[in-house]
């Protein structure tokens, strides 16, 4: 595990949008953030510093963002391996350093992972009511078909965490589904397993975050299976991009606290009257980039400091 101070020292001064360093492996795909390569019996995921908002990849990026998110995922994969096996291969460090001979920067933003079949749902756990869950609650007092108590306010803590799966869209937005619909998609047995694992992961993550003075309001997990049907935790885990983290010191029921993610960027973009949220996106001012980078680094530093 790399400390917050060491990670800060490793951040590039300019965003890494495209990998300059050649990777000695065939490229499978290029996503909004990641470059994906085939390593024969495994897959290499390399996170750039690109950033998207409203489904549009913006010019520039946040220097070191991909590095921070990758290292935070590594931290959580290590912390949660007793709850669920994950997709990181055992000899990852050897592959990155010795076989691929990646630079230090590329090693820090890379994951070498198992080849697995991703489940066709995303597993969302909510401990507090916010975001789309709050909007749904205001309409009919339910979230993904789960009825909640009357009288909840924005950012209220729920009586107990709830499992609210969504579809997994290749394009556009994921859509909420009821537990019954999710079970029809992946099968009842797998659904029960990932629901149980997701709730355990949320419980563990929220307790560790609380030690750092952070509230884990909600989060999204993804899972994949191997040929034997074993379920693995995959993709990223408990990062600011897959989770809603709040500073406990700023938390107040009835209002939505500032989150440790790219909400700073979304808020800025919402002030632009001449952008219609379609490509190409606008350039971000340096002060917005600096604030976003600072929030990503802050949540990383706080979380890793408590173990």
Question: What can you tell me about this protein's structure?
Answer:
With 307 residues, the chain is α+β, with helices and mostly antiparallel strands. Helix content is 34%, strand content 22%. The protein is built from 9 helices and 15 strands. The strands form 4 sheets. Strands 7, 8, 11, 12, 13, 14 and 15 form a 7-stranded antiparallel β-sheet that branches. Helix 2 packs parallel to helix 9. The longest helix is centred in the middle third of the chain and has 24 residues, at 188-211. The model has no long low-confidence stretch (mean pLDDT 95).
List keywords for this structure.
307 residues, alpha+beta, D-amino Acid Aminotransferase, Chain A, domain 1, 7-stranded antiparallel beta sheet, 4-stranded antiparallel beta sheet, 9 helices, 15 strands
Q: Which fold name fills CATH's third level, the topology of the domain at 118-250? A: D-amino Acid Aminotransferase, Chain A, domain 1
Helical segment count: 9
Kindly provide the radius of gyration, computed on alpha-carbon positions and rounded to a whole number of angstroms: 19 Å
Low-confidence stretches: none
- Sheet-strand content, in percent, reads 15-25%
- Total beta-strand segments: 15
Q: What's the CATH class label of the domain at 118-250? A: Alpha Beta
Q: What is the H/E order?
A: HEEEEEHHHEEEHEEEEHHEEEHH
- State the shape: globular
Largest sheet: 7 strands, antiparallel
Mean pLDDT across residues? 95
CATH superfamily membership of the domain at 118-250, which one? ATP-grasp fold, B domain
Terminal Cα separation, in Å?
10 Å
Under the CATH scheme, the architecture of the domain at 118-250 is: 2-Layer Sandwich
Structural class: alpha+beta
Task: Give the fraction of residues assigned to helices.
Answer: 25-40%
Pathway: Purine metabolism; IMP biosynthesis via de novo pathway; 5-amino-1-(5-phospho-D-ribosyl)imidazole-4-carboxamide from 5-amino-1-(5-phospho-D-ribosyl)imidazole-4-carboxylate: step 1/2
Organism: Pelagicoccus enzymogenes
Keywords: ATP-binding, Ligase, Nucleotide-binding, Purine biosynthesis
EC number: 6.3.2.6
């Amino acid at each position: 595990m790399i400390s917050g101070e060491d990670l800060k020292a490793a951040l590039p001064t300019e965003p890494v949008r495209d990998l300059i360093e050649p990777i000695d492996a065939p490229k499978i795909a290029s996503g909004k953030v990641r470059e994906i390569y085939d390593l024969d019996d495994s897959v290499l995921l390399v996170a750039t510093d690109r950033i998207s908002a409203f489904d549009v990849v913006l010019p520039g990026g946040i220097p070191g963002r991909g590095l921070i998110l990758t290292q935070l995922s590594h931290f959580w994969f290590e912390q949660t391996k007793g709850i669920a096996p994950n997709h990181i291969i055992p000899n990852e460090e050897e592959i990155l350093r010795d076989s691929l001979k990646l630079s230090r920067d590329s090693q820090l933003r890379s994951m070498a992972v198992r080849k697995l079949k991703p489940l066709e749902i995303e597993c969302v756990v909510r401990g507090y009511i916010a975001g789309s869950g709050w909007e749904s609650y205001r309409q009919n007092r339910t979230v993904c078909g789960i009825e909640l108590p009357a009288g909840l306010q924005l950012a209220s803590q729920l009586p107990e965490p709830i499992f609210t799966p969504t579809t997994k869209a290749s394009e556009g937005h994921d859509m909420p589904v009821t537990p019954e619909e999710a079970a029809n998609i992946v099968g009842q047995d797998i659904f029960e397993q990932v629901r149980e694992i997701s709730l355990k992961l949320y419980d563990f993550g929220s307790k560790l975050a609380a030690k750092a003075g952070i509230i884990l309001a909600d989060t999204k997990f993804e899972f994949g299976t191997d040929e034997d049907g074993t379920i693995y935790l995959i993709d990223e885990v408990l990062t600011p991009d897959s989770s809603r983290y709040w500073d406990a010191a700023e938390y107040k029921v009835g209002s939505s606290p500032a989150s440790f993610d790219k909400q700073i960027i979304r808020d800025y973009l919402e002030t632009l009257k001449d952008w219609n949220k379609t490509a190409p996106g606008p350039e971000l001012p340096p002060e917005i980039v600096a604030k976003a980078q600072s929030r990503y680094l802050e949540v990383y530093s706080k979380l890793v400091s408590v173990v």
